[in-house]
Amino acid sequence: MAHPLRGKTACVGVATAGCGEAPGRNAMEIMVEAVHGALADAQIPLSEVDGLFAATAFHSMANMSLAEHLGIQPAYSNGSNIGGSSFMMHALDAAMALEAGLINVAVIAYGSNQRTAGGFRSISEPPPFEFVYGPRNPITAYALATSRYMYQYGCTREQLAEVAVAARKWAQLNPDAFERGDLTIEDVAKARMISDPLTKLDCCLVTDGGAAIVMTRVDRAKDCPKTPIHLLGAAMEHHHRNISSMPDLTVTATAKSGPRAFEMAGCKPADMDTVQVYDAFTINTILFLEDLGYCAKGEGKDFVSGGRIAPGGELPVNTNGGGLSCVHPGMYGLFVMAEAIRQARGECGDRQVKDAKLCLAHGNGGVLSSQVTSIWGRPETV
């Protein structure tokens, strides 16, 4: 029996704004620009928006600040923040509110000017068992997970670099990507060390950027000009806040969220035409592909090698260039969903995956802490 939420709601509008560098604009202005862009894409007036979902690292109550700036009074609002995966959680929450009849039009939004504002921003509290050692989180935490994976499974620096090189090859097909220059495995491995064993090129970009999507029920979606991309499945899981409390540094909560999302969608990993995952660091892509079921634990290092996830490979992963080469304003999850939706729409130009119908978007928050998997599909997949 199909899950009662499967395919009942759809994304009808998507936009990004201020990606790369947006001098002279603050995080709210970038987010508002993305909202107006997504509504224009859906051809839905702002006055019809009655559901609002937002999270940033700049605002403690982002959804209320955004509503005030837009001049709207939503009937349902959620500003829950679980890091970069917040937006996949918001999509699931929006689907429930839409299907329950609480709202009719939902907007999910994010904005950041962290690059032009001077660098990484965080409203996180100090980790109680770690701060005495002076970690430079989040990178220290991801370096710890990387070190453990390399020790436990024999992963090499060159295998980590394969992830960054594949992302750059996709970025070279994307005119909107921030970094498009040539990149080799040697370049990544020999780049400046940031937190051993991660070099500068193992780390995501620091950019500005905003994104927004518009969701409605399928009956309303039929009135919109673009192909509606249905939310077929979504699931979340989190099992720690601080890296010192992570049960196993090589296994993320994706191992739980992924199978539940696939079950809800009535799909399996091999059915996905594109896979977008939150690649804040090169280790992320390896861990998430394993935990999503694309290969066994410890085999991800080999799975990503040899161009398998690059253009022309058997599994298109992070087709916009990802957080490593396209855009990463601090919380990347909404850009992951935007790329999945655009691939399903067939709007991606030179990087478009032929006949893409089922697209996975996976979000990560904190230090491998919160994991939310979402699966999107064209109308014929419902």
Please render the helix and strand layout as text.
Blueprint: E1 9-20, H1 27-42, E2 51-54, H2 62-70, E3 76-78, H3 86-99, E4 105-112, H4 139-153, H5 157-171, H6 185-189, E5 193-195, E6 198-199, E7 208-217, H7 218-221, E8 229-238, H8 254-265, E9 274-277, H9 282-291, H10 300-303, H11 322-325, H12 333-345, E10 358-365, E11 370-377
Parallel strand pairs: 2-3, 2-4, 9-10
Antiparallel strand pairs: 1-7, 1-8, 4-7, 5-6, 8-11, 10-11
Summarize the structure in short.
The protein is α/β, with parallel strands linked by helices and 382 residues long. 32% of the residues lie in helices and 19% in strands. Helix 5 packs across helix 9.
Structure write-up:
α5 crosses α9. It contains 12 helices and 11 strands. The mean pLDDT is 96. β10 and β11 form a beta hairpin. By secondary structure, the chain is an alpha/beta fold. The two termini are 13 Å apart. The chain is 32% helix and 19% strand. It has one domain: Thiolase/Chalcone synthase (Peroxisomal Thiolase, Chain A, domain 1), CATH 3.40.47.
